[in-house]
Amino acid sequence: MTAPEVAVTAAPSPSVPSTLGQDALDRAARGERLDAAELESLYHLPLPEVAAVAHGLRLERRDPDVVTFLIDRNINYTNICNVGCNFCAFYRTKRQADAYTLDYAQLSHKIRELEAVGGTRILLQGGVNPELGLDYYLGMLRHVKAHHPTIRIDAFSPEEVLFMEKAFGLSLDELLDRLIEAGLDGLPGAGGEILEDDVRRKAAPARIRSEDWFRIIDAAQRRGLYTIATMVIGFGETYAQRVSHLLKIRAQQDKAQREYGGNGFFGFALWTLQTENTRLAGKAPGATAHEYLQQLAVARIALDNLHNLQASWPAQGFKVGQAALYYGANDLGSTMLEENVVSAASGNGRHQATVRELVRIAVDAGFTPAIRNSRFEIIEWPDVETILHRAPSNPEAGRGVGASA
Ligand code: SF4
């Protein structure tokens, strides 16, 4: 496939009056809502000043002592995909030797490993595989509910839902109802990247457009499904495009809180573009740790109606992930007993964590760790003393260690 034309410069920095940024930051510190120009001005202020306000808002909006995380497993039921995003190193065509589609027995094997370490949810996502029929999807959900009744299923990105909608001739509402009836609990908001079509067209010409992404998320929220909002930076997008992405999410959250009984986005996950083994390698600028932390802080200030922000240790590594707890994040995501998509394009970050590792990150940063479910409700307080004083090599020390299939 021909290499795409992708902007190679980092986000441009148009000059803005310095007083706008300072005034905006003062307003944010008072809990006031910022508009697009004000949010854009924050990128031109010293990061420690923006971070201090973001962290202050995090302390006000979530328990100031607690950092949460989830024990879960990402299961990618197929890597066959016909969308072919330029930033994806995970997908295969059906003729490639390592193309796969899991059968239900393989799926159960992976879930039993998760159950053995106390996990409570699977993130079930895959490529857009035109060989699969509706029965495969419905059967997969029914199989998990029948054989693993304590496991919550958050499944299918808006991209996969769009495929099903078109391929199976169902309206979106009918499709979601069928999936919910079969066992779907949530629709993770994967594939958000930057919800500006100029950016999306360059990075992935066949990728779901932002209008469809929001249409599908909106329908899921209306039906009471769990969703989260996602963002990826480093495509060469401008600050204005990043702010536009955040404001669209904030507007959707306002709508969900107003019209769907508060069932909007439960969390927000930001990470940086990983390009290793992809067609964007050497062509997209990516984002440094400074840019990541800056973007996280701006997101905390922008998203005044969405209170759980995740630290991205999988893309940033544990050290930057821990620092993120002082730039607006209040959550460490999940242990990710298995992760295949980000890891396929990244040699830098970590792709799974033990409970011991996440507990240590939280404790050393000055917080009390808590295990949550996917709706960010605390379900367990880990025994910190016992966990941290065990040898790391002891399997009992870290549920979730080294068990990927
Ligand atoms: S990111 Fe998803 S939709 Fe895009 S190529 Fe990879 S698996 Fe397919």
Describe this protein with a few key phrases.
alpha/beta; binds iron/sulfur cluster; disordered C terminus; 4-stranded mixed beta sheet; 405 residues; 3-stranded parallel beta sheet; TIM Barrel
Describe the protein's architecture and organization.
- Pathway: Quinol/quinone metabolism; menaquinone biosynthesis.
- Its EC number is 1.21.98.1.
- The chain has helices at about 20-30, 35-40, 45-60, 105-115, 135-145, 160-165, 170-180, 195-205, 210-220, 240-260, 290-300, 315-325, 340-345, 355-365, 385-390; strands spanning about 65-70, 70-75, 120-125, 150-155, 225-235, 265-270, 310, 330-335, 370, 380.
- It is an alpha/beta fold.
- Helix 5 links the parallel strand 3 and strand 4.
- Helix 1 runs parallel beside helix 3 (about 45-60) and helix 3 (about 45-60) crosses helix 11 (about 290-300).
- It is globular, with a radius of gyration of 20 Å.
- Mean pLDDT is about 90; it is low at about 1-10 and about 395-405.
- Bound molecules: iron/sulfur cluster.
- Iron/sulfur cluster binds near residues 81, 83, 88, 90 and 128.
- Iron/sulfur cluster (SF4) binds next to loops.
CATH superfamily: Aldolase class I
Global Rg: 20 Å
| Main β sheet profile | 4 strands, mixed
Our count of domains comes out at 1
Q: Give the H and E element order.
A: HHHEEHEHEHHHHEHEHEHEHHEEH
Would you tell me the overall average pLDDT? 90
Strand order of the largest sheet: 8-1-9-10
Bound molecules: iron/sulfur cluster
Low-confidence stretches are: 1-12, 394-405
CATH topology: TIM Barrel
What's the number of extended β-strand segments?
10
* Beta-strand proportion: 5-15%
Contiguous helical run count: 15
CATH architecture: Alpha-Beta Barrel
N/C terminus separation: 31 Å
Tell me, what is the CATH class? Alpha Beta
* Approximate shape: globular
- The secondary-structure class comes to alpha/beta
Question: What share of the residues lie within helices?
Answer: 40-55%
